[in-house]
Amino acid sequence: MTAPARILLADDHALVRHGVRLILDNEPDLTVVAEADDGAEAVAQARSTDIDLAILDIAMPRQTGLQAARELSRLRPELHILILTMYDNEQYFFEALKAGASGYVLKSVADRDLVAACRAAIRDEPFIYPGAETTLIRKYLDRAQQGDALPAKPITEREEEILKLVAEGHTSKEIGDILFISAKTVERHRANLLQKLGLRDRLELTRYAIRVGLIEP
Questions:
Q1: Closest CA to 199 of 210, 186, 190
Q2: Keywords assigned by UniProt (predicted)?
Q3: pLDDT of res. 72
Q4: Which residue ranges make up each domain of the chain?
Q5: Residues 41-46: contacts with CB within 8 Å, 24+ apart?
Q6: Looking at the domain 157-211, which fold is it?
């Protein structure tokens, strides 16, 4: 018999992890061997644990699932990645694919779709939650016919990291320590964020971070 696929499960809600783990461990070909409650811990676990698949929630502290997926794709290109999310959002779907994920699963239907998504990922096949296929493909084809580009992200990856940490309440010095850059560099990035996004202060940055799913309300 083939050994079951070894899975890392990352979500900052213990109850969600417990529920998802029950679904996966009930399958003979899947087993959860590691858990993490934020994106940074997920990356650390993936460095030290023998896993085949990482399932990452989008909105987690320290690092989002998308940020963790980008890092894991660079560190372990052979690792399969799924994004688990409450956000039925076209932008996140394309960002997940660009970050290296092979599938995007909604928490609201995880009991129905997650096992199939895991098996597809292990086979190196993409997984799109069924309700999104028609809409996403139609929008993509419409853009292609009109000569439009795919939706662009307004900020860089580094700015996204800083935005998330600002919204979580960290000071410039703390953010600098976390990202190994100077507080002055953090301040420059924050000023750029305010200008790019047309926002005025930390409160508006926090509201924006919630709206785009970098942190939860």
A1: 190
A2: DNA-binding, Phosphoprotein, Transcription, Transcription regulation
A3: 94
A4: 5-142, 157-211
A5: 41/10, 42/8, 42/10, 42/68, 42/72, 43/68, 43/71, 43/72, 43/75, 45/8, 45/10, 46/8, 46/72, 46/75, 46/76, 46/79
A6: Arc Repressor Mutant, subunit A (1.10.10)
Domains 5-142 and 157-211 share a fold: no
pLDDT tens string 75-126 = 999 999 999 888 777 777 778 888 889 888 888 888 888 999 999 999 988 8
Question: Predicted confidence band at 24 (pLDDT cuts at 50, 70, 90)?
Answer: very high
Q: What is the dihedral of CA 201, 203, 209, 210, to 10 degrees?
A: -160
Is the distance from CB of 216 to CB of 210 less than 8 angstroms? yes
In SS3 terms, the chain reads as: CCCCEEEEEECCCHHHHHHHHHHHHCCCCEEEEEEECCHHHHHHHHHHCCCCEEEEECCCCCCCHHHHHHHHHHHCCCCEEEEEECCCCHHHHHHHHHHCCCEEEEHHHHHHHHHHHHHHHHCCCCEECHHHHHHHHHHHHHHHHHCCCCCCCCCCHHHHHHHHHHHCCCCHHHHHHHHCCCHHHHHHHHHHHHHHHCCCCHHHHHHHHHHCCCCCC
CATH of segment(s) 5-142:
3.40.50.2300
8 Å CB contact between 190 and 166: yes
Pairwise CA distance, residues 21 & 177, whole Å: 34
